[in-house]
Design brief:
With 288 residues, the chain is an alpha/beta fold. The protein contains twelve helices and seven strands.
Length: 288
C-alpha cells in the first residue's frame, strides 16, 4: 500500500485530486453498496445506469457514464487489461504510467478523470446540473492546464536567480478567496496561538479568527490554523479557496503527503476532510 500512496502523493494533480485518490485507495468513499450494508438504503444498485451494483470501481470506471469516457482515452489494445484490473491494481498501474500524451502525462489525465467522475456522480445524485457539454475535451484541456502549471512552477523554482522583493499580500484571481493563517508557540512545545484572515479578490475582509491552542509544537499550531481557516471558509460557502501558510514544512504535508505513523497525521487527515468536499482548494507556501 505504501508504494501506491507514494504514487498518489506524487502524481501531477491538485491537492484535492490527490486526497480523493487517497480516499479511494483506502476504500472509504460512500457507495450504494456500502449504504445498503449499513441499512441506509434498500438497494445497492447504481441509480445512474440501473445495470449493476454501485461499487467504487463501478462509479469510477465501469458505469456506462464513465466507460464511454475511458474508452476514448485508452487504446483498444489496452482496454482488456484496463477494464478488468481490480481497484488497487488499477490505481497503482495507471498512476505509474508517465507516457506523454500531447502536453500531459497519462497519470495526470487518469487522476483528473477519476476525480471528475466522482464529482459528476455526486452532482447527479444531488440534482446539480453541470455545463460541460464535451467531457472528454474538458478533461484533456484540464490535464494540459495542470501539467503546464506544474512545469512553470518548477521552472520558477529552479531558476537560481536571487532577487530582493517586498513581501506583500497579493489578491487571488477573480472568483477565488484567500485565507492567510499564521501561528506561533512560545517554545517548541510551548503556549501556542493561531489566527487567520479571509479576504476576497478585492481584498475585502470576509472573516477572521484567533484561537488559544494551549501547549503544543509550532507545526501543530500551524496545522490548527489551517484547519480553522478551512472551517471558516467552508461555513461562509466559499467556492474556491487559496490557503497561504508561511511554514514550508506544514505545506509539504499537503503537497507531498504524510505517513500515517507521523504524530501530526491526525490533524492533516481532518484537513483532508475539507479537501474532499465540493469546492476547490490550493495550499501554498508564502514568506512571512
Amino acid at each position: 500500500m505504501q508504494a501506491l500512496f507514494t504514487r498518489i502523493w506524487h502524481v501531477i494533480a491538485s491537492e484535492q485530486t490527490r486526497v480523493f485518490l487517497w480516499l479511494v485507495a483506502r476504500q472509504v468513499i460512500m457507495t450504494n453498496m456500502k449504504r445498503q450494508r449499513r441499512h441506509l438504503t434498500d438497494t445497492g444498485i447504481c441509480q445512474v445506469c440501473k445495470g449493476g451494483e454501485e461499487s467504487i470501481l463501478h462509479i469510477l470506471r465501469d458505469c456506462p457514464a464513465m466507460f464511454e469516457i475511458w474508452s476514448r482515452f485508452v487504446p483498444m489494445a489496452k482496454q482488456g487489461e484496463f477494464f478488468n484490473t481490480p481497484l488497487l491494481g488499477w490505481l497503482y498501474e495507471n498512476l505509474g504510467v508517465h507516457t506523454e500524451i500531447g502536453r500531459y502525462n497519462w497519470s495526470t489525465l487518469f487522476a483528473i478523470t477519476t476525480w471528475w467522475g466522482w464529482k459528476w456522480r455526486c452532482w447527479n445524485v444531488f440534482g446539480k446540473t453541470g455545463k460541460c457539454r464535451d467531457r472528454v475535451k474538458f478533461l484533456r484541456d484540464l490535464a494540459k492546464e495542470t501539467s503546464e502549471a506544474h512545469t512553470k512552477g518548477r521552472e520558477r523554482g529552479t531558476a537560481g536567480v536571487r532577487v530582493e522583493r517586498h513581501i506583500v499580500w497579493t489578491p487571488p484571481i477573480s472568483g477565488w478567496f484567500k485565507v492567510n493563517t499564521d501561528a506561533a508557540s512560545k517554545g517548541n512545545p510551548g503556549r501556542a496561538l493561531a489566527g487567520g484572515v479571509l479576504r476576497d479578490e478585492d481584498g475585502t475582509w470576509c472573516g477572521g479568527f484567533a484561537i488559544n491552542i494551549g501547549i503544543c509544537s509550532a507545526p501543530l499550531a500551524e496545522l490548527w490554523g489551517i484547519y480553522y481557516g478551512l472551517y471558516m471558509a467552508w461555513e461562509k460557502r466559499v467556492p474556491r479557496l487559496i490557503v497561504e501558510v508561511d511554514s514550508e514544512v506544514v505545506v509539504s504535508f499537503f503537497n507531498a503527503g504524510i505517513n500515517d505513523s507521523h504524530p501530526l497525521s491526525f490533524l492533516v487527515r481532518l484537513c483532508y476532510g475539507f479537501f474532499s468536499r465540493d469546492w476547490l482548494i490550493r495550499v501554498i507556501h508564502v514568506y512571512s
